[in-house]
Each structure stands twice: as C-alpha cells, then as structure tokens.
Amino acid sequence: IGLDNIENADQLSEIAPTVLFTYGELSYLDQIVEIGKVVNKEEEAVAWVEEFQTEAQTVGEEIKAVIGEDATVTVAENFEKQMYIFGDNWARGTEILYQEMGLNMPETVKENALDAGYYAISEEVLGDYIGDYLILSLAATDPETSFLDAEWFQNIPAVQNNQVFVADAETFYFNDSLSLDYQLDFFEESFLAE
C-alpha cells in the first residue's frame, strides 16, 4: 500500500499485491477507510475516523476558547532554503487545524495556498503570510535555520508574542492515522499549555 508516485511500483507488484493511491484524490480520512478495506479492517478504520474527528473537533473548540474564534494560524515549512506555506489539505497537520478544528488561516494563505495545497515563498516575506500563530515545521536533516535569528523573523508579531510552535517535519509530512494522532496531541499540548 502506498502512493502512486513511488518508484519501482511495477517491480513491487511482481513480488506482492500492491494498492496505490493518488494523493489528494480521496480526502485524508476517506483514504484511511479505503486502506482499512484493503486490509479487511474497514469497521475499525471507520471507528477510528469517527473517534478522531470527535476528538479533533473537541480539542479545536478548547483551542478557540483560549486563542479566540477569529485568531489565524499559519503552517509553514523550511526546506532546502525555500519556505512553503500550506493550505488545508497538504498534511503537516493542516487537515486537523483547518478542516476538523475549524481554525482560520490568514487571507494571504487562502489566496495563495488553499487551492494548490502549498505555496513557495522566499523566507524574507514569510511575515506577510503569518497569522496570529505559526506552526513551523523544521526538518532535522535540513541544517539551514539561520533565518530563525534574522531580524525580519524576530519582528514577526507571532514570534514576538511567543506564538510559534516548532514541529518536527518528519512527524508532520504525512496524514496517516499514527501521524494524525501525534499531530493532534502536538496541537493540544502547544495551544493549551499552561
């Protein structure tokens, strides 16, 4: 089971049955149910999805009670000296924040990343896309984080207000059930920390 862009899919299918999904063709939760069907665990997958949605929506209401109904949240990632901002369906926890919790993204993010899923920007204009809160995904394998000390970054209001939550990119790349559970816990702990 994998995505249809994997290399050697033909060779893998000669070794064992393969099921490949096109990323984004199904919603992230429908894909979990479809994988459940493939492995004869549809009932368990449906139950997990229902429980996850309930928990994410509950946590979302708790977060909104703390940060306010109108607060905006941006998800960004630095990768090989390029900054990306994300819409509501490109993993990195975006499905949880925007779809399940109903949190708001800034207008500049909606305009540029909502339809495409993500949008590449130069680091120096990141502040134009940052809402009240920033989820910043950083990869341990990418040592380029000097922008964190740059004056332009330090002048972003979310940074000055200590409303930046740094996530480990390797745990935020995906939207499978294990990753989603981890991301939900991360958001709950980050936004609701005492």
From TrEMBL:
Location(s), subcellular: Cell envelope
Pfam families named in the record: Peripla_BP_2
Transport listed as a keyword: yes
GO cellular component, as recorded: outer membrane-bounded periplasmic space
Domain Fe/B12 periplasmic-binding as annotated: residue spans: 1-194
GO terms classed as biological process: iron coordination entity transport
Primary location: other
Keyword hit for Phosphoprotein: no
Keywords: Signal, Transport
Family: Belongs to the bacterial solute-binding protein 8 family.
Annotated protein name in UniProt: ABC transporter substrate-binding protein
